[in-house]
Amino acid sequence: MREGRWTTITPSQYQHEREALEHVRTVLPESEPYRAWSNFTFTANTGHVREVDLFVAAPSGLHLIEIKSLHGRLSASGANWVQTTGRNTRYFDNPLHLADSKAKQLKSLLQKAADREARIPYIHAAVFLSVPSLDVDLPDHQRNGVYGPENGRLPKILSDLLMVPPADERYRLTAELSRRLDGWLRKVGIAKSRSHLQVGAWQLEPRPFDVGPTWEDHLATHDQIPAEKRRIRIYLVERNADESMRASMGRAARREVLALHGISHPGIVRVDTMEQHEAGPALIFRHDPRAMRLSNASSITKCGWSIRPVLGSSWMVGPSTPTANRMGCMLSRVRTCGLIRMLRSG
Question: What CATH number belongs to 195-286?
Protein backbone atom coordinates (compact mmCIF):
# COMPACT_ATOMS: atom_id res chain seq x y z
CA MET A 1 0.00 0.00 0.00
CA ARG A 2 1.45 3.36 -1.08
CA GLU A 3 1.53 6.65 0.79
CA GLY A 4 -1.73 8.48 0.28
CA ARG A 5 -3.79 5.42 1.01
CA TRP A 6 -1.36 4.67 3.86
CA THR A 7 -0.79 7.84 5.93
CA THR A 8 2.23 8.00 8.24
CA ILE A 9 1.44 10.71 10.77
CA THR A 10 4.72 10.28 12.66
CA PRO A 11 7.66 8.18 11.40
CA SER A 12 8.47 5.58 14.03
CA GLN A 13 11.67 6.04 16.04
CA TYR A 14 11.93 2.31 16.66
CA GLN A 15 13.24 -0.26 14.20
CA HIS A 16 11.03 -3.06 15.56
CA GLU A 17 7.92 -0.91 15.16
CA ARG A 18 8.91 0.13 11.62
CA GLU A 19 9.33 -3.55 10.70
CA ALA A 20 5.92 -4.42 12.16
CA LEU A 21 4.22 -1.61 10.24
CA GLU A 22 6.03 -2.56 7.04
CA HIS A 23 4.87 -6.16 7.48
CA VAL A 24 1.27 -4.90 7.27
CA ARG A 25 1.78 -2.11 4.72
CA THR A 26 3.40 -4.25 2.04
CA VAL A 27 0.45 -6.67 1.95
CA LEU A 28 -2.58 -4.38 2.29
CA PRO A 29 -4.16 -3.96 -1.16
CA GLU A 30 -4.42 -0.75 -3.20
CA SER A 31 -8.19 -0.96 -3.39
CA GLU A 32 -11.28 0.37 -1.63
CA PRO A 33 -12.09 0.50 1.20
CA TYR A 34 -8.54 -0.13 2.47
CA ARG A 35 -6.79 2.80 4.17
CA ALA A 36 -4.40 3.07 7.11
CA TRP A 37 -3.00 5.70 9.48
CA SER A 38 0.08 4.98 11.60
CA ASN A 39 1.60 6.51 14.73
CA PHE A 40 -0.67 9.34 15.76
CA THR A 41 -2.03 10.82 18.94
CA PHE A 42 -5.47 12.11 19.88
CA THR A 43 -6.89 13.64 23.03
CA ALA A 44 -9.82 11.69 24.44
CA ASN A 45 -12.80 13.38 26.07
CA THR A 46 -11.33 12.34 29.43
CA GLY A 47 -8.18 14.40 28.74
CA HIS A 48 -5.95 11.36 28.16
CA VAL A 49 -3.50 11.80 25.29
CA ARG A 50 -3.76 8.49 23.45
CA GLU A 51 -1.09 6.95 21.23
CA VAL A 52 -2.27 4.83 18.31
CA ASP A 53 0.17 2.54 16.51
CA LEU A 54 -2.06 1.65 13.57
CA PHE A 55 -5.64 2.40 12.50
CA VAL A 56 -6.95 0.48 9.49
CA ALA A 57 -10.10 0.72 7.39
CA ALA A 58 -10.87 -2.69 5.85
CA PRO A 59 -13.93 -4.44 4.37
CA SER A 60 -14.65 -6.00 7.77
CA GLY A 61 -14.68 -2.60 9.49
CA LEU A 62 -12.34 -0.31 11.44
CA HIS A 63 -9.43 -1.73 13.42
CA LEU A 64 -7.22 -0.09 16.07
CA ILE A 65 -4.04 -2.14 16.43
CA GLU A 66 -1.57 -2.03 19.30
CA ILE A 67 1.89 -3.26 18.27
CA LYS A 68 4.00 -5.19 20.78
CA SER A 69 7.43 -6.38 19.60
CA LEU A 70 8.16 -8.73 22.48
CA HIS A 71 10.92 -11.32 22.68
CA GLY A 72 11.39 -14.41 24.84
CA ARG A 73 8.36 -16.08 26.40
CA LEU A 74 4.94 -14.57 27.05
CA SER A 75 2.63 -16.08 29.66
CA ALA A 76 -0.05 -14.85 32.05
CA SER A 77 -0.44 -14.53 35.80
CA GLY A 78 -4.02 -13.72 36.65
CA ALA A 79 -4.96 -10.57 34.73
CA ASN A 80 -1.30 -9.71 34.08
CA TRP A 81 0.88 -10.67 31.14
CA VAL A 82 4.37 -11.92 32.00
CA GLN A 83 7.34 -11.54 29.66
CA THR A 84 10.39 -13.67 30.44
CA THR A 85 13.71 -13.09 28.69
CA GLY A 86 16.56 -15.05 30.23
CA ARG A 87 16.56 -14.23 33.94
CA ASN A 88 14.46 -11.08 33.54
CA THR A 89 10.73 -11.10 34.20
CA ARG A 90 8.33 -8.24 33.52
CA TYR A 91 4.67 -8.00 34.56
CA PHE A 92 2.26 -5.72 32.71
CA ASP A 93 -1.43 -5.36 31.90
CA ASN A 94 -2.96 -7.15 28.93
CA PRO A 95 -2.58 -4.40 26.25
CA LEU A 96 -5.89 -5.35 24.63
CA HIS A 97 -7.73 -3.65 27.49
CA LEU A 98 -6.12 -0.27 26.82
CA ALA A 99 -6.46 -0.72 23.05
CA ASP A 100 -10.19 -1.38 23.49
CA SER A 101 -10.51 1.79 25.60
CA LYS A 102 -8.71 3.82 22.91
CA ALA A 103 -10.98 2.34 20.22
CA LYS A 104 -14.13 3.36 22.08
CA GLN A 105 -12.78 6.87 22.73
CA LEU A 106 -11.74 7.35 19.10
CA LYS A 107 -15.13 6.15 17.84
CA SER A 108 -16.87 8.69 20.08
CA LEU A 109 -14.73 11.52 18.71
CA LEU A 110 -15.15 10.38 15.09
CA GLN A 111 -18.91 10.24 15.50
CA LYS A 112 -18.90 13.77 16.85
CA ALA A 113 -16.77 14.90 13.89
CA ALA A 114 -19.05 13.16 11.38
CA ASP A 115 -22.14 14.50 13.14
CA ARG A 116 -25.19 13.40 11.14
CA GLU A 117 -23.28 12.81 7.91
CA ALA A 118 -22.58 9.17 8.72
CA ARG A 119 -22.74 6.52 11.39
CA ILE A 120 -19.26 5.49 12.53
CA PRO A 121 -19.09 1.71 12.91
CA TYR A 122 -17.66 -0.16 15.87
CA ILE A 123 -13.86 0.01 16.06
CA HIS A 124 -12.29 -3.39 16.72
CA ALA A 125 -9.25 -3.47 19.04
CA ALA A 126 -6.41 -5.90 18.40
CA VAL A 127 -2.88 -6.60 19.64
CA PHE A 128 -0.20 -7.45 17.07
CA LEU A 129 2.66 -9.49 18.57
CA SER A 130 5.05 -8.81 15.71
CA VAL A 131 8.08 -11.01 16.53
CA PRO A 132 7.65 -14.49 14.96
CA SER A 133 10.00 -16.18 17.44
CA LEU A 134 8.04 -15.07 20.53
CA ASP A 135 6.99 -18.13 22.57
CA VAL A 136 3.35 -17.41 23.42
CA ASP A 137 1.96 -19.43 26.31
CA LEU A 138 -1.21 -17.46 27.06
CA PRO A 139 -4.41 -19.19 28.18
CA ASP A 140 -7.23 -19.21 25.63
CA HIS A 141 -9.19 -16.37 27.23
CA GLN A 142 -6.09 -14.11 27.09
CA ARG A 143 -5.60 -14.79 23.36
CA ASN A 144 -8.77 -12.99 22.28
CA GLY A 145 -7.87 -10.19 19.88
CA VAL A 146 -4.20 -11.24 19.74
CA TYR A 147 -2.54 -11.72 16.34
CA GLY A 148 0.92 -12.45 15.00
CA PRO A 149 2.81 -12.06 11.71
CA GLU A 150 2.00 -14.11 8.63
CA ASN A 151 4.94 -16.45 9.30
CA GLY A 152 4.12 -16.99 12.99
CA ARG A 153 2.02 -19.47 14.95
CA LEU A 154 -0.66 -17.09 16.20
CA PRO A 155 -3.74 -16.08 14.18
CA LYS A 156 -2.38 -13.87 11.39
CA ILE A 157 -2.80 -10.09 11.48
CA LEU A 158 -3.53 -9.90 7.74
CA SER A 159 -5.10 -13.15 6.53
CA ASP A 160 -7.07 -13.73 9.77
CA LEU A 161 -8.10 -10.14 10.53
CA LEU A 162 -7.54 -7.28 8.10
CA MET A 163 -8.17 -9.15 4.84
CA VAL A 164 -11.13 -11.31 5.81
CA PRO A 165 -14.57 -10.36 4.46
CA PRO A 166 -17.22 -9.14 6.89
CA ALA A 167 -19.20 -11.82 8.70
CA ASP A 168 -22.38 -10.04 7.61
CA GLU A 169 -22.48 -8.14 4.30
CA ARG A 170 -24.77 -5.55 5.86
CA TYR A 171 -21.80 -4.33 7.90
CA ARG A 172 -19.26 -4.14 5.07
CA LEU A 173 -17.32 -0.85 5.28
CA THR A 174 -18.19 1.31 2.30
CA ALA A 175 -15.67 3.08 0.07
CA GLU A 176 -17.45 6.39 0.70
CA LEU A 177 -17.08 6.18 4.48
CA SER A 178 -13.45 5.09 4.14
CA ARG A 179 -12.65 8.08 1.89
CA ARG A 180 -14.18 10.50 4.40
CA LEU A 181 -12.35 9.12 7.42
CA ASP A 182 -9.24 11.22 6.82
CA GLY A 183 -11.21 14.47 7.11
CA TRP A 184 -12.96 13.32 10.26
CA LEU A 185 -9.66 12.24 11.80
CA ARG A 186 -8.27 15.73 11.11
CA LYS A 187 -11.32 17.22 12.84
CA VAL A 188 -10.66 14.99 15.84
CA GLY A 189 -7.17 16.49 15.95
CA ILE A 190 -4.88 13.54 15.28
CA ALA A 191 -1.35 14.87 15.25
CA LYS A 192 2.30 14.28 15.83
CA SER A 193 2.46 17.29 18.14
CA ARG A 194 5.05 16.87 20.88
CA SER A 195 3.96 19.79 23.07
CA HIS A 196 2.23 17.30 25.38
CA LEU A 197 5.61 15.64 25.93
CA GLN A 198 7.14 18.58 27.85
CA VAL A 199 6.62 19.43 31.52
CA GLY A 200 8.87 22.27 32.63
CA ALA A 201 12.44 21.11 32.03
CA TRP A 202 11.37 17.47 31.68
CA GLN A 203 10.92 15.66 28.36
CA LEU A 204 8.32 12.90 28.62
CA GLU A 205 8.49 9.52 26.94
CA PRO A 206 5.63 9.42 24.39
CA ARG A 207 3.98 6.32 25.82
CA PRO A 208 2.70 6.36 29.40
CA PHE A 209 3.93 3.34 31.34
CA ASP A 210 0.97 3.38 33.71
CA VAL A 211 -2.56 4.73 33.31
CA GLY A 212 -5.47 5.25 35.70
CA PRO A 213 -9.01 6.61 35.34
CA THR A 214 -7.92 10.23 35.90
CA TRP A 215 -4.12 10.16 35.51
CA GLU A 216 -1.24 8.79 33.47
CA ASP A 217 2.42 8.30 34.35
CA HIS A 218 5.36 9.00 32.04
CA LEU A 219 9.08 8.43 32.43
CA ALA A 220 10.85 11.76 31.90
CA THR A 221 14.41 12.96 31.25
CA HIS A 222 15.80 16.37 32.18
CA ASP A 223 16.51 18.61 29.16
CA GLN A 224 19.98 19.62 30.38
CA ILE A 225 20.93 16.61 32.52
CA PRO A 226 20.10 13.40 30.60
CA ALA A 227 21.09 11.18 33.53
CA GLU A 228 18.31 12.67 35.66
CA LYS A 229 15.06 10.69 35.41
CA ARG A 230 11.67 11.31 36.98
CA ARG A 231 8.24 9.73 37.05
CA ILE A 232 5.69 12.39 36.12
CA ARG A 233 2.04 11.86 36.92
CA ILE A 234 -0.37 14.03 34.95
CA TYR A 235 -3.80 14.51 36.48
CA LEU A 236 -6.11 14.72 33.50
CA VAL A 237 -8.77 17.38 33.19
CA GLU A 238 -11.62 16.29 30.94
CA ARG A 239 -11.57 17.72 27.44
CA ASN A 240 -14.78 19.74 27.90
CA ALA A 241 -14.30 20.61 31.59
CA ASP A 242 -15.32 24.06 32.74
CA GLU A 243 -13.15 26.38 34.84
CA SER A 244 -14.57 25.18 38.16
CA MET A 245 -13.65 21.56 37.35
CA ARG A 246 -10.15 22.58 36.28
CA ALA A 247 -9.70 24.60 39.48
CA SER A 248 -10.92 21.67 41.57
CA MET A 249 -8.40 19.32 39.95
CA GLY A 250 -5.64 21.87 40.56
CA ARG A 251 -6.53 22.15 44.25
CA ALA A 252 -6.56 18.35 44.63
CA ALA A 253 -3.10 18.08 43.06
CA ARG A 254 -1.72 20.85 45.31
CA ARG A 255 -3.09 19.08 48.39
CA GLU A 256 -1.20 15.94 47.39
CA VAL A 257 2.04 17.87 46.91
CA LEU A 258 1.69 19.54 50.30
CA ALA A 259 0.89 16.22 51.97
CA LEU A 260 3.95 14.48 50.49
CA HIS A 261 6.47 17.30 50.20
CA GLY A 262 9.36 17.05 52.61
CA ILE A 263 8.70 13.40 53.45
CA SER A 264 11.84 11.35 52.96
CA HIS A 265 11.35 7.65 53.56
CA PRO A 266 12.91 4.76 51.61
CA GLY A 267 9.51 3.13 51.16
CA ILE A 268 7.68 6.19 49.85
CA VAL A 269 7.96 7.54 46.32
CA ARG A 270 9.17 11.09 46.90
CA VAL A 271 7.55 14.09 45.19
CA ASP A 272 9.72 17.01 44.06
CA THR A 273 7.25 19.62 42.89
CA MET A 274 4.18 20.34 40.76
CA GLU A 275 4.14 21.83 37.25
CA GLN A 276 1.36 22.69 34.84
CA HIS A 277 0.78 20.59 31.71
CA GLU A 278 -1.72 21.24 28.91
CA ALA A 279 -3.71 18.17 30.03
CA GLY A 280 -3.77 19.14 33.73
CA PRO A 281 -1.57 19.41 36.85
CA ALA A 282 1.64 17.35 36.76
CA LEU A 283 3.35 15.95 39.87
CA ILE A 284 7.05 15.19 39.52
CA PHE A 285 8.17 12.13 41.48
CA ARG A 286 11.61 10.64 41.97
CA HIS A 287 11.88 7.59 39.73
CA ASP A 288 12.58 4.13 41.07
CA PRO A 289 12.31 1.41 38.40
CA ARG A 290 11.40 -1.07 41.15
CA ALA A 291 8.22 0.83 42.03
CA MET A 292 5.04 -1.02 41.15
CA ARG A 293 1.30 -0.80 41.67
CA LEU A 294 -0.05 -2.69 44.67
CA SER A 295 -2.60 -4.33 42.32
CA ASN A 296 0.32 -6.07 40.57
CA ALA A 297 1.97 -7.24 43.79
CA SER A 298 -0.13 -10.42 43.94
CA SER A 299 1.77 -11.70 40.90
CA ILE A 300 4.89 -11.98 43.06
CA THR A 301 3.26 -14.86 44.96
CA LYS A 302 3.35 -16.89 41.76
CA CYS A 303 7.14 -16.82 41.88
CA GLY A 304 7.46 -18.34 45.36
CA TRP A 305 7.25 -15.07 47.30
CA SER A 306 4.89 -14.38 50.18
CA ILE A 307 3.10 -11.13 50.99
CA ARG A 308 2.01 -10.25 54.50
CA PRO A 309 0.86 -6.96 56.05
CA VAL A 310 3.25 -5.14 58.34
CA LEU A 311 2.22 -2.10 60.41
CA GLY A 312 -0.89 -0.99 58.56
CA SER A 313 -0.23 0.13 55.00
CA SER A 314 3.23 -1.42 54.61
CA TRP A 315 3.76 -4.86 53.19
CA MET A 316 6.59 -7.32 53.72
CA VAL A 317 7.44 -9.46 50.70
CA GLY A 318 9.97 -12.24 50.75
CA PRO A 319 10.77 -15.75 49.56
CA SER A 320 8.76 -18.48 51.25
CA THR A 321 11.85 -19.97 52.94
CA PRO A 322 13.42 -19.90 56.41
CA THR A 323 15.68 -17.09 55.18
CA ALA A 324 12.72 -14.82 54.46
CA ASN A 325 13.64 -12.42 57.27
CA ARG A 326 17.09 -11.85 55.77
CA MET A 327 16.08 -11.76 52.11
CA GLY A 328 12.75 -10.00 52.40
CA CYS A 329 11.66 -6.88 50.61
CA MET A 330 9.32 -4.22 51.86
CA LEU A 331 6.57 -2.87 49.68
CA SER A 332 5.31 0.46 50.98
CA ARG A 333 2.08 1.78 49.60
CA VAL A 334 1.52 5.48 48.88
CA ARG A 335 -2.19 6.21 48.87
CA THR A 336 -1.92 9.41 46.87
CA CYS A 337 -0.02 7.97 43.92
CA GLY A 338 -0.85 4.28 44.11
CA LEU A 339 2.82 3.27 44.08
CA ILE A 340 4.86 0.87 46.14
CA ARG A 341 8.61 0.32 46.20
CA MET A 342 10.62 -2.88 46.61
CA LEU A 343 13.52 -2.42 49.00
CA ARG A 344 16.01 -4.84 50.50
CA SER A 345 15.40 -5.11 54.21
CA GLY A 346 18.68 -6.59 55.23
Answer: 3.30.200.20
